[in-house]
Amino acid sequence: MKTIRKSLAELHTLLVNKEISSVELTGEYLDHISEFEPKIRAFITVTAEKALAQAKKIDQKIAQGESIGPLAGIPMALKDNLCTEEIVTTCASQMLREFIPPYNATVTSRLEAAGAVLAGKLNMDEFAMGSTTESSAFFLTANPWDLSRVPGGSSGGSAASVAAGEVAYSLGSDTGGSIRQPAAFCGVVGLKPTYGVVSRYGLAAFASSLDQVGPLTRTVRDNALVLNAIAGYDVLDSTSVPFNKPDYTQFLENNVKGLKIGVPKEFFEHGLKSEIAELIKQALKTYEQLGAEIEECSLPHMQYALPAYFVISTAECSSNLARYDGVSYGYRAEAEEVIDMCETTRAKAFGPEVKRRMLFGTYALSSGNYEAYYVKAQKVRTLIKQDFAQALAKYHVLLSPTTPTVAYKIGEISEPVACYMGDVYTIPVNLAGLPAISIPAGFVDNMPVGLQLIGNYFAEGLLYRAAYAFEQNTGYYQEIPALLREAD
Amino acid sequence: MTISKQDVEHIALSARLKLTEEEIKLYTKQLDSILECVDLLEQIDTTDVRPTAHGVELFNVLREDEVEPSLPQEKALINAPETEHGFFKVPRII
């Protein structure tokens, strides 16, 4: 196997045993990026020089006999809505095309402290609004499994870069499925942690009560290792939750005997492709053979999750994006007076998806509509939360498909409402603030399919155990896109 | 409910977004189709339901009133489109 596709644990061993240096390893990834970027276009910025400088530091540590952590010296990349000091952070928007953050996001600092090597910043839907990465103001990213298809979104660059082997892992953000859906579309593992487990400090806000940062990796163990580094209370994020962070790798046990899995029947509606339903049934059989107990269950309010999400996410987005006014940072349009400057700045630098959502959010929050839409949606959110609470009192985890279809063809989704339908199984989880993971579950039409496991608050460990057992007994993670096989 | 052209003009003003005539037409149509989906919410009775603001709710996140390190002025200004004497500079206000 090519070195760059090895697991984090294997790469760590190679580095510690001095079979490869971090500079050499980083060089291999950078070469691979140069070779594949013309086709994949996952990166907005490649930080080759800084990556090699960081790699050199880690090599010095190894040479001096210092012990290094499990992520040290290994290249990764960050979604371009995570602030990186002195490295341009665009949110894939003309608004922030030249924005250079004066500070690091907490996740950036934590990975840096863990010795991680930042290889670059990844493409995404503009301000994380979209499900295909097509709303990026810069360019389209291709799905490594089929270049005529989208990688999903909004963390499309994060999923595509990992699937294409350009980095060992990446971070994305998930507001309604933006980590799990692209992970499913690109055949990688993507975790949305419990709301408050990972700090949002330095994550450019889209919908603050829903946004959560999480890892995209090739394997479940890699995912647990990255979560170990980024999770934990942060005084700089007032919604960060103080909790006792475990070592997530301790849960990686190939054993699901007695695990109670609930299968919500509502997650098999809404245009689920029959071949995907078939794969999920097979997955349930696998779990059953491994000794898990499977039972159908119901989350009766799920059909209201999508409209509630529409209202809450757009309302929060209209408020969060009010800060882009051309005054203190970001793009500014020339104008004679200040209101005109602000209105023209926003008209010129925001794309159509962002404008549409801001307009709807403003509508939902305006007087006369506030009670009927915003407060109503927040009440529906309570009902959705209660549905999950009841189900998770009975079952350890809930299992569903991650998405109703495989990755779309580029340009296939044009209607704004159709775009949200693909997130119908992932959105309810964000409304409730629960953790969920998408793992590879097979292929339909040669495209990867994802399986979603949803757990109780702070039960990331249990999700990892359930995901690990499935992964170890199916081995879908070993499949790689034809594009990579041909290049080997 | 339906969204009119006047509604869109009004919310665009509130959102400080200058829209072209074509954009107003397009967004009137699109917001209307979103509204159709959102109006599904009317079907549920939520009379005695308390609203939820966050999935994991925290209350009274406070700290001691002590000076903590913060962004120095020069750094806070590095991305400003225009500055003067250490301030953000904007075009004429009145």
Characterization of the model:
The complex is a heterodimer of chains A (488) and B (94). Chain A is an alpha/beta fold. Chain A has helices spanning 8-16, 22-40, 48-63, 106-113, 156-163, 180-186, 220-230, 274-289, 305-320, 338-349, 352-365, 370-394, 416-421, 427-432, 460-474, 482-487; strands at residues 43-46, 75-79, 117-122, 169-174, 189-192, 212-217, 260-264, 293-297, 397-401, 436-444, 447-455. In chain A, a hairpin with a 2-residue loop joins strand 10 and strand 11 (447-455). In chain A, helix 2 (22-40) runs antiparallel to helix 3, helix 5 (156-163) packs parallel to helix 6 and helix 7 (220-230) packs antiparallel against helix 15 (460-474). Chain B has 94 residues and is mostly helical. In chain B, 35% of the residues lie in helices and 4% in strands. In chain B, strand 1 (83-84) and strand 2 form a beta hairpin. The mean pLDDT of chain B is 92. The interface between A and B is large, with 74 and 51 residues.
Chain-wise SSE layout:
The complex is a heterodimer of chains A (488) and B (94).
Chain A: H1 8-16, H2 22-40, E1 43-46, H3 48-63, E2 75-79, H4 106-113, E3 117-122, H5 156-163, E4 169-174, H6 180-186, E5 189-192, E6 212-217, H7 220-230, E7 260-264, H8 274-289, E8 293-297, H9 305-320, H10 338-349, H11 352-365, H12 370-394, E9 397-401, H13 416-421, H14 427-432, E10 436-444, E11 447-455, H15 460-474, H16 482-487
Parallel strand pairs in A: 2-3, 2-4, 7-8, 7-9
Antiparallel strand pairs in A: 1-3, 4-6, 5-6, 5-10, 9-11, 10-11
Helix pairs in contact in A: 2-3, 5-6, 7-15, 9-11, 9-12
Chain B: H1 5-14, H2 21-38, H3 73-77, E1 83-84, E2 87-88
Antiparallel strand pairs in B: 1-2
Helix pairs in contact in B: 1-2
